[in-house]
Amino acid sequence: MRKLETMYELAASENLNLCVGTGIVMMTSLVSLGLQHRFGQLIDTISSKSEVLVQSCTVILCFFAFLSALAFFKYYFLETAADRVRNRIRVRFFSCMLIQPMTFFDHYGSAGLINRLSDDANLLADTTTKQLAQGLGEIFTVIVFTYQMITLSRSLSIVAFCIFIPLAGLTLLLGLGLRYLRAEVQSRIANSMQVAHERISAVSTVRAFCKESEEISHFSTECDKVLAISWKSTLVHAFFHSAMDLSNGVMIVGVMYWGGRLLYQSHISPGTLITFLLYARVVGKAMKGVSFFYTSLVKGMSASERIQEVIETLPGKGGQETDVGEGTRTLDTVEGNIRFHSVSFAYADNPVLSEINLDIPAGGIFAVFGASGAGKTTLARLLLRLYDVKDGEGTIKLDGVNIRSLEPEWLRRQIGYVSQDPVLFSGSIRTNILYGMASGTNIPADQLDSLLYKAAKDANALEFILRLPDKFETLVGERGELLSGGQRQRIAIARALIKNPKILLFDEATSACDLENERLIQEALDGIGKNRTVIIIAHRMSSIKIAAKIAVIEDGKSAEVGSYQNLMAIPFGKFKRLVDGPGT
Q: Which parts of the chain span the membrane according to its record (predicted)?
């Protein structure tokens, strides 16, 4: 019961539309009742005067016109409610999803989350609006028409329900396994969508390694798994609905047989028998609608569980562990002094850093150097508070203040971050650079353009942007695929610079660039590094030569720290070995 309450809480804001829609459904049932009764009267008066026939047909036509009007309003109110609930669920789901800890995204695939945001939200919205109103209407129809059947003929009613109720009860038992089958179907679909999402987003890699056939086979295997469980679900559905049709048919035949006998004995009139058969047909159809509502409810509960799993999982509440604490402090001014003191960190059970000690002075260029997999990127994630250092495993301080006490969003606004493979969003170059501005920033258009041009110029991106036909309005494509790698990097640097951060963090920002683009980025660093703390994380020697101080990370530990000249002067030093290469 609690799961049902939770599911329908999502539609509570549309109570008015739902009440109106449900009322219209019930009114449709009452009008239909009158229509069936009028048909019965027509049978009994069909041999009377022609005026009576014309009058009856006119009344029946008016019934149909009224039913048509009710159908219009029912569709309008219920579809409006469904659209609004669907929109509200998606916004709420997306909002809750974005505040989850990073471990949440490590655990759930992006395609699985998109599947919940799309298919599950659709199913849940329909179940809590249209299917709910229709289901309540069908239950109302069963109650009203059953009462009318009993009033019309108790003997026929006993025959009808002695046949129908046992068969309908057996069919309802088939629905008990639908919920679990539906949940399994959705899980398998999410897995297949994850495979498709990964391969489509990396289609160039798939094609470069000539793996099209293997990936098609892989996806086909995942789809076959969906098909296998869907077949079981479809089989149960088929038995469910065919059994309901059989129940309805047997009931009609039983009523016809017993009613025919009563008619021969003159206990009922032909009109009464026809009316009762029409009532029975409506009840049978309504019971099938109730069964459909039941199956929809089962599907909706599965979708609700998958949606609520995210919506109700608030970081730091309900037993959910969070990667980032609830820091609330901000600093009036930021100098940019950063210190890592005895920092250790692990992803789940995989240790990455061990007793790291780094002192990064304000206003200079500091490089973190090491082989791939040494733990350099983890340092960046910890500084950005994408993850937090756990109690007893060291501290990271900004200007002498533990960053765990600082408000995460405020801290991130002080840091301009450029990753190895920066993601640009579909849209123009302008919108991608302005994405770096703090939310809620209200700057006049002319000043904003000035900031935009300055950021692009400082990032050595202005020249190539102005050569493009649409300049800053040029569309970059999905993930920036319409630009070269070096152009994407420089747009990303401009995005980091436009908010004028006190700290710049470059995580392998030139590792994928050619020599010319790397030179342009290095020139940009020479200019933008003034009066800022610049941290360059790299494994290429060419990327760190401009650094005043270099820290060498090896196997998650601080190996050496010093200037380039000092580190190269250490005989058999780790830095010298990495620079000179193996065997030197």
A: 12-33, 53-78, 156-178
Say if residue 251 is in the same domain as residue 378: no
How many structural domains is the chain composed of?
Answer: 3
Average pLDDT for 172-197: 69
Where is the domain boundary, 276, 294, 311? 311
What is the C-alpha separation between 305 and 183, in angstroms, rounded? Answer: 9
State the Cα–Cα distance between residues 24 and 130, nearest whole angstrom: 12
Sheet with 503-507, edge to edge strand ranges: 415-418, 503-507, 533-538, 365-369, 549-554, 557-562
Give the pLDDT score at 202. Answer: 64
Supply the pTM of this predicted model: 0.65
- Least confident interval from 219-228, 346-355, 517-526: 517-526
In a domain, 319, yes or no: no
* Amino acid residing at 55: Q
DSSP 41-66: HHHHHTTS-HHHHHHHHHHHHHHHHH
Q: What digits encode the pLDDT tens for the residues 221-264?
A: 888 888 888 787 777 777 766 777 777 777 778 878 887 878 77
**Residue 322, domain member (yes or no):** no
CATH number at residue 395: 3.40.50.300
d(CA 121, CA 125): 6
Helix (H) or strand (E) holding 491, with range, is helix 485-497
In this structure, the answer to whether residues 189 and 161 fall within a common structural domain is yes
Strand partners, 366: 535, 549
CATH number (domain holding residue 96): 1.20.1560.10
Q: How far is CA 271 from CA 44, 150, 259, 260, 368, in A?
A: 5, 16, 11, 12, 92
DSSP category for residue 375: S
The torsion region of residue 562 among left (phi > 0), alpha (psi -120 to 50) and beta comes to: left
- How many whole angstroms separate alpha carbon 28 and alpha carbon 4? 26
| Single residue among 455, 485, 500 that ends a domain in this structure | 500
392 and 527 assigned to the same domain: yes
List pLDDT tens digits, range 261-311: 787 777 777 777 787 888 787 887 787 777 778 777 777 777 777 777 777
Domain interval for residue 38: 2-311
- 98: three-class secondary structure by DSSP: helix
Choose from 269-273, 457-461, 540-544 the range with maximum mean pLDDT: 457-461
**Burial zone of 224 (CB within 10 Å; 0-12 exposed, 13-18 middle, 19+ buried):** exposed
Angstrom distance (rounded) from CA 543 to CA 331? 31
CB–CB of 92/171 below 8 Å?
no
Output Rg (C-alpha) for the chain, integer angstroms: 35
Q: Which of 362, 371, 360, 379 is nearest to 549 (CA)?
A: 360
Whether residue 363 sits in one domain with residue 242: no
Q: How far apart are CA 206 and CA 213, in angstroms?
A: 10
Angle between helices 270-311 and 154-174 (to 10 degrees): 30
Q: Are strands 401-402 and 395-398 parallel, antiparallel or unpaired?
A: antiparallel
**409 part of a folded domain:** yes
Integer Cα distance of 374 and 369 in angstroms:
9
What angle do the packed helices 15-45 and 50-98 form, to 10 degrees? 160
| Per-residue pLDDT at 66 | 81
What gap in Å lies between CA 512 and CA 490, rounded to an integer?
12
